[in-house]
Amino acid sequence: MLTYMDYIQKCFSETSGWNDDMSYEQILRTPNNLLQFKIPSGFQVSVASKNTENSYSSATLRQLNRLNGSVSYFYSSNDMKNAYKGTGTLPLWSVIDDYRFIRSPKQERVLQRRKKAEKKDLGDRNPYLLYGKMYFPSQFLEGMIVKRLSDSTQMTLRFINTPKFRKLTKNCSILTLYLQRQNDHNATDFIYSSTESLLGLRCLYKLGSDFSLSSSPGYTDSTSLSAGFELWFALLSMSPGLSTAVRYSTHISSSGKPLTMTLALNPLLGTIESTYSIKPGLNSTFCSKYTFNIYSYESDFLLGFSLFRCNGYNPPSPQLQSTNKTIADSPDKVSFQTGEIHTENLQPNRSNTIQRNDTKKVGGRSDKYPFNVMDEDQHHQLLTTFMGITPGKLLTENNARHFLDTFNRSQFSSAFKCAASVARKDVKFAWEGRFKDLLLSSGVHIDCNDSIPRVDKCGLEIQYSS
Amino acid sequence: MVALHLSEESRERLGKVMGTTRDIVHYSWIPFILYLGWASTSTKPNFVQLLSPFPSA
Fold first, then answer.
1. Residue A189 and residue A224 in one domain
2. In the beta sheet, which residues pair with residue B52?
3. Which InterPro entries match (chain A) (predicted)?
4. Whose CB among A286, A415, A443, A465 lies 3.0–4.6 Å from A39's, allowing a Cys bridge?
5. Which domain holds residue A218?
């Protein structure tokens, strides 16, 4: 489950129009969410609230061997009231790490255009987020500055500082700087870390069948192929690092169910990892992973799944119900819903299509047929749109959109996750859900290497925010 | 890489300046965030409201 800090950062990215998934760092996010999810250690309680329009605070108390805690404060220069919700009202899928729906370059472009329009209304084009967290009793300070430099560039500075208590102890500071640049089809990250003077470069390229600008605007394609690599070099130890990965994400044509496949390679360490993740239903996700090392011949097979409990579905917004009445009356009952994170990205680009409201008055009367009042360019554009539509593809996209629309409207109340490794002989269970206005997260990690399985780690986390 | 040649005294002074700057940032970072939150709002909440993570009644 996301921590409060991660949630605030997510809200900030959402309101400022930054896509966190558009980075090489996140290329294996779906398999990692399902196979390497975090198990809480000990008992932890955190309380958070929105103090003013732009500032947020949180306090955490943790019991693991001994009692410790932390307080954290946030300041965001842009107003996050549309994205931020307390634990009592936020949709559970937005804080539980599960299957990630990948947007194609075209969907990305549509979303970016919309976000730009929204940002113009907000006024602050280059917002920033400040974060500070102090741990007790150690008094370690953790800080972060996120600053948008332009529409496509963002700078993030993270630091950790330990205080100097005695003359003999030396204080330690670690500083990491990220300079990120992204657009609808590629992303580049430059990283510098003061630890070993580490320099890093991450690149991600997104390819899709609707990559070109001239593709038909009438529908979107949710299939995407992403490829990327990362390079690391430590200046002090002169040691390099390298990895590369490919990700293919699509929807099953008959049902619109999403699936993602990845292949990652690390030539220096000799590891090859392949994963297959699928969402066979709205309430379930399944993932498998196979790893192999070409130097040591060691291999592992991991399996994981998550099951969601659904209490019902939110109705589509009334405005959209009336707008899409004709579509909703069709046999497949496709309902378009804007305002949601995922579905809005899949909205067809209607900016170039002809709306019924665009009818002009000719000779003092409103023309019923807009085709008659179009100029030659519009005729050509409309015909190209219709000629470009492949019925089979349109059906697939409608199914995909319907699946996402229903998923976004689902009222999930809890999730159960399980992951197991064949070579390591361990199994993890986690339960995350909502009780009243509290978010609960619990889990257990069982090691089966010995004759008697032993509990390696277990814990419970309680979160409340308003 | 160009090596920076500094005398022992300069190195010590630079270390002290760096240490002091680090201490100032360490203890003023959170008050600075709180101040920005206080300055950005027109209602100007009191110190306890600004500091407390508990929801106000």
1. yes
2. none
3. Mdm10 (IPR027539)
4. A443
5. 4-316+418-465
Identify whether residues A388 and A449 lie together within a single domain: no
| Residue B24 at interface with chain A, using a CB cutoff of 8 Å | no
Cα–Cα distances (Å) from A132 to A353, B27, B29, in that order, read: 47, 11, 7
Residue A339's contacts (CB-CB under 8 Å, 6 or more residues apart) are: A317
Residue bearing tokens 């709306």 = A355
Is A210 in the same domain as A249?
Answer: yes
Shortest CA gap B34–chain A (Å): 7
Q: Which residue of B has its CA nearest to A79?
A: B40
Tokens 């992973």 belong to A289
Tell me the C-alpha distance between A117 and A133, whole Å.
Answer: 34
Indicate which of A53, A55, A89 best probes the interface with B, i.e. most B CBs within 10 Å of its own CB: A55
A137: buried, middle or exposed (CB in 10 Å: 19+, 13-18, 0-12)? Answer: exposed
On whether the CB atoms of residues A337 and A316 are closer than 8 A, the answer is yes
User: pLDDT averaged over consecutive 10-residue blocks of chain A (466 residues)?
Assistant: 91 89 92 93 93 92 90 92 88 89 76 70 78 92 94 94 71 91 91 93 82 46 86 94 94 82 95 95 94 96 94 70 42 35 39 42 50 72 67 70 82 93 94 93 93 91 93
- What phi and psi values does residue A207 have, to the nearest 5 degrees? -120, 150
Q: How many residues does chain A have?
A: 466
Instruction: List the alpha helices (DSSP H) in A314-465.
Output: 318-323, 325-328, 376-388, 391-409
Binary contact (B50, A52; C-beta < 8 A): yes
Report angle CA A260, A262, A265 to the nearest 5 degrees: 175
- The verdict on residue A216 lying in a domain is yes
Residues 52-71 of A with CB under 8 A from B: 52-55, 57-59, 71
Q: What angle do CA B18, A160, B29 make, to 5 degrees?
A: 70
Locate A8 and state its tokens. 């605030």
3-state class of A53 per DSSP? Answer: coil
How many Å apart are CA A25 and CA A23, to the nearest integer?
5
pLDDT in tens, B2-57: 556 788 888 899 988 988 888 899 999 999 999 999 998 888 888 888 888 887 75
User: Residue A456: which CATH number?
Assistant: 2.40.160.10
Q: How many CA atoms lie within 13 A of A124 on its CB side?
A: 15
